[in-house]
Amino acid sequence: MADLTPTPDRPGLHVSKPSPSAPATGSAVCHCGASATATGDDQVRAMVAGWDANHGSAHNRQGR
């Protein structure tokens, strides 16, 4: 399988939860240069919410 980790050359959001009992992990890199990582279900949810509100396609919604 290809490496799905986002990079400055391939911005995006990646979340992994290998099993129901394992903690989620996530990473994000935006084309604006912002980046984040998170470990644990609650922290990953917060990172995804922040990404959705402020990065990725949010840049297009805000006319950036």
Fold blueprint:
Layout: E1 12-16, E2 25-29, E3 35-39, H1 41-54, H2 58-61
Structural class: alpha+beta
User: What is the H/E string?
Assistant: EEEHH
Name the strands of the widest sheet in spatial order: 1-2-3
Number of helices: 2
* Beta-strand fraction estimate: 15-25%
Could you give the count of β-strands? 3
Query: What number is the mean pLDDT?
Result: 88
Query: Residue ranges: pLDDT <50 for 5 or more in a row?
Result: none
Separation of termini?
33 Å
Share of helix among residues?
Answer: 25-40%
Instruction: Please summarize the sheet with the most strands.
Output: 3 strands, antiparallel
- Rg, rounded, reads 12 Å
Gross geometry: globular
Structural description of this entry:
The protein is an alpha+beta fold. Helices cover 28% and strands 23% of the residues. The chain contains two helices and three strands. It has helices spanning 41-54, 58-61, and strands at residues 12-16, 25-29, 35-39. Strands 1-2-3 form a three-stranded antiparallel beta sheet, covered by helices on one side. It is globular and about 35 Å long. It starts with 11 loop residues before the first strand and ends with a helix.
